[in-house]
User: What shape does this take?
Amino acid sequence: MKIQFDELTYQADAINAVLGVFEGQQIRKSEFTIMNEDIQGKLFGEKGIGNKIDVSESKLLQNVQQLQIKKGIPIAQSIPSPFPQFNIEMETGTGKTFVYLKSILEMNRKYGFTKFIIVVPSVAIKEGVMKTLQMTKEYFKTQMQGIVYREFMYDSSKLENIIAFASNENVEIMVINIQAFNSEDNIFNRNDRDKLYGISPKDYIAETNPIVVIDEPQSVDNTENAKAAIISLNPSFVFRFSATHKEEGYPLLYKLGPVEAYQNKLVKQIEVAGVKRTIDGNEAYLRLLGIKATKTSVTASVEILEKKKTGIAKKVISLKKNDDLAKKTKLTAYEEIGYVRDISAEKDNEYIEFSGEPSVIYLSQAHHADLEVKRGQIRKTIEEHLNKELKLNTLGIKVLSLFFIDNVANYRKYDEEGNPYLGKYGQIFEEEYKDVLKSPKYKKLRDYHIPVEEVHNGYFSIDKKGKFKNGGEKDESAFHIIMKDKEDLLTMYDVEKKKMKKAHKLRFIFSHSALKEGWDNPNVFQICTLIDSKDELTKRQKIGRGLRIAVNQSGDRVYGFKVNTLTVMANESYEEFAADLQHEYEKDGMEFGIFKNETFSSLVLEVDELTGYQKPLGREYSKKLVEYLTEQKYIDAKGKGTVALAKAIKDQVFELPEEYAVLAPDMTKKVIAAIEQKFNTEKIEIKDHAKKETVRLNKEALSGSFLELWERIKYKTTYSIQFDSEQFISDAAKKLKDELLVRIQKLEYERKQLKIEESGIEEKTTEKTSFSTVQREYTKAPDILTELQQDTKLTRKTLIAILKQSDTLHDFKVNPQMYMLEAARIINAAKRLAMVDGVKYEKLETEEVYDQSLFKQEEIESYEDSIVKVSDNRSPYDHVIVDSKIERDFAEACEKDPNVKFYIKLPADFKIKTPLGNYNPDWALSVEEDGKEKLYFIVETKGSTAAEDLRKTELEKIRCGEKHFAAINTGITFKRAVELEQVY
Assistant: This one.
């Protein structure tokens, strides 16, 4: 299979941006004479051919500005010196190498330039560029008829290529890595009397005034020596191609960043998936986050599991020397780790030493039994892979998956004779692959019958040396297949077509950082990270291995997100991955949602119909506009849009100063459109702080009807509990048997799509499931009676009786921590019921009552949508503050009903003591219907009147409240209602 090349619209735009710089240039070449001395001492002259530029600087600046205006790029104010340099930004996977190679040939065809140098940051990328030159040779022959060009890789042992470069009339393209000429010791910079007649390669090159293309300039001319090396080439022009420009001082000619690439579907859509264990506390979890050292102490910040009333949860704690993990966490799983022996704050060697196992844990390294998680990651990657094969194989697309690991031995080990055998990840892969294939839906896969050992392989740096290659299989080595033979790797296994190489069968690749630069593959659809310690690969490096648009068996690209989705199986949460990815984009110079002085500079005011010249707003006006938006509080100190800006645009009250409004028709609309590219107003939650209200105490209302009602509810009580132990044990055992549900260990799987916008990275959940791992029993079980005693405050004798009668102890072995948590919850629930059933309230005969001073706060700040206006002095304040729609509806119903003489939303300090904690009733009402005797009510408004719909603790507190008001015996009726008509 041969990968087909076709020039895409955006690539043509980038090429035209390069060519557009030279608008007005005549087709020219310069000639120069190289004076050489031959070995007999005779002088002879040799003609050299170079590039000659005759575009004036003013014309060059006008060309650049017009190109920038067309693309909405901030316009340049000047051309860099001592020679023009320009940035071209193209996102990873969009074909920048193809673009600059085609640009080189087009510069020759249109303007006659012949000398070109491509400078790259590494040998790996140099080989990649040469490979692309070879692969595109046939395409360019047909597309660029008549153009003769020669490409070569600079080699200090073949300096005759330098003479040919300087003297040939045809197009010369030299590819060189920066390390080859950024030092005075390099042969490139030395005069060589034997090979170049006393002239250095650098001097030959400099005479030609080459046009230089820098591939990944952030890694090429990032030092003073490297910058000097570029200057020594005496370039006429420099074009800098990268996805991540660090230096913004050079004018930007063309921009195809992550946002544009994503929005135009020029790269794969990204989705992030993750597998995590449900937290149950059966095994210790420990992650060292940081170490702080002072003159007097050293402490470590550690993420652990902690036992809480609600269950097991992660928590960050501080550890110091001699701290005991089991005591800190209240979990017996940490007993094997022991106490802290020592903490090291040494830079790059931070660790904690423990008395048990693990004996040492290093910074950003997790210790927990996470092989099940890795197994889950591998399984889900296989499933995602096979599901894509079901969909894409029919389109002639071979699916590849890439696994990153940090330890070769985890995938492949070697015996004493150097023979390889599988490590733990290799074994897990084969086990899970075989198991997943058992599903009937995969039987129709074209590669279903290929043996599992032939569908996966690994490339690691040691393989490149050939240490473990078998004789006679050099061309089929993992290194050759993965690093060199891209076409065969993309070709499907097909017996009929005699495509039966190892590369054709290979679909799953294991590797590490050896693949982070200079390698990618358009048909990588899954990337899985199986890293135990800190992951040194950046998120952009990971996704960069698989961002390119997929190709079919004809070598043609197949576009659209329905085909092109890259699933990243991350070794952290989605939130961490997305935040890190956005941070990396920002670190690389992409600023999400930032308004800068030049943001509006290329906004087009008018277009000359005759010349097509576009008049921009310009940098000065753009700067003033940003200053105006900042003054209006539409932009904050960091350059980000504010809630006020979102509200002004949403309410259609956004206005510009008069000096801007007259610049162009619909100027306000143009500015808003430019703002909304940077600032997603839909995501901003607008809370109208202007509609705050002050709720005031109405002292006139604190008399008459208020005092009559208050007299009925002001009394306090005390309670006692009658408890039948035998009945409680029987009830608790039955409840435990009926309700206990202990689940085996589960893995959770979540997959989310990334949406890359100017305003930032957004997400959408596409799948969330859980699945079980291999069932197992825990051999080291915690002390169940001690744990339950602490959680229930019952005696060991009572607990033994409950557990025996419940006949549930067999579930304890399945998941000890879940059993204890659930058992404690159920027994405590039974205890609460027994306490409430046996609670007895008595009215206090003392002067101790609820005081009217509960209404002492004279003013309360609230919002308009959280209050109801009170009429006719029928409540203590001029407004009632409500917390829900039900409460609002109830208060409004009281206002409309003339029979309600007075109503109180009882303050939070009106608390009734219960065995389960304090209870705060909702409302107190006095009602007079048709002039009859007044009725007095305590009303509890909840979302439902059905007892089973309320939280059990809340329900039991309400039952205690009913007993309290019955005990004070003042003629008050207790009601549970959601509407006023349910009260009387």
Observations:
- The radius of gyration is 38 Å.
- The CA atoms of residues 524 and 546 lie 5 Å apart.
- Residues 35-45, 464-476 have pLDDT under 50 and may be disordered.
- DSSP finds 28 helices and 38 strands in the chain.
